[in-house]
Amino acid sequence: MDLNRALEWEDITECQVNWRRIKKLAEYGRDRTLSEAEFGRLIEAVERVPHLRDFLLIALNTGMRKSEILGLRWEYVDFDEKTISVPRNLRKNRKPLIVPMNQTVVDILSGMKRAGDYVFVNGETKDRLKNLSRSFKTACRRAGISGLRVHDLRHTFGTALAKEGEGTLAISKLLGHSSEGMTRLYINRMDERLQVSVDKLNGKFSAKRRYSDDTPLNETPASNSVN
Fold first, then answer.
1. By C-alpha distance, which of 73, 33, 17 is closest to 155?
2. What is the CATH number of the domain that holds 134?
3. Fewer CB atoms near the end CB (10 Å): N or C, the chain?
4. Coil, helix or strand for 145?
């Protein structure tokens, strides 16, 4: 596995490698996404695990990374502006990001009980929840889903937006991808057009909805693929 990608998926927390002694191999993108039928089964599997259900829905409706969601403090959430301000210390590229919230995310966060500074708190230690990989794997097993990683929820978000007709630039900005073009366009406030973008997913990934068909969300043109 690409160690950089393993760090991104948070399968490992630290990598100390002498890169000068390792030959770089060609990389192949991972395009695993959650189908609509899988989403329905997964939500059913986590109905009795509220913190995991809320995490899944926030991830699918914002495209945020696992570390960004679990590190989320209430002070970063602005219900009036419908935004989440992700500080640089939570960002992979160390650049702050403003994430627009659709009504699904607003409803989820509004309905959560506040047990401290962090949005996701460990029920036993009362400290912030640091990991949920084990419970995620258990939920996937119960839902009959294989080969799905937490980071694939981020891919699902981007791919779903592409299916809704959003362009690469809007998706790139919402995901906070680092690129020269995105950096030139990004300013320290939310582009109103991005709010329109995430609103298109409002209700698509919701605990109130069930799916019966097995239409995959990753059937998009190659030009709209998201890494």
1. 33
2. 1.10.443.10
3. N
4. coil
Give the Cα separation of 24 and 18 in Å (integer).
12
Mean pLDDT value across the chain: 80
Per-residue H/E/C for 10-65 = CCCCCCCCCHHHCCCCCCCCCCCCCCHHHHHHHHHHCCCCHHHHHHHHHHHHHCCC
Q: Is residue 227 part of a domain?
A: no
Q: Is 121 helix (H, G, I), strand (E, B) or coil?
A: strand
Instruction: Spell out the residues 6+ positions from residue 83 whose beta carbon is closer than 8 angstroms to its own.
Output: 77, 98, 99, 100, 101, 190
pTM: 0.71
d(CA 198, CA 202): 7
What single DSSP character describes residue 113? P
- The total number of structural domains that make up the chain: 1
Amino acid at 219: E
The helix (H) or strand (E) run that includes residue 184 is: helix 180-185
Q: Give 71-82 pLDDT, tens digit per residue.
A: 999 999 999 999
Which residue has better confidence, 6 or 221? Answer: 6
For the record, the structure tokens of 13 come out as: 């927390």
Give the distance from CA 77 to its chain's centroid: 16
Range of the domain at 132: 32-218
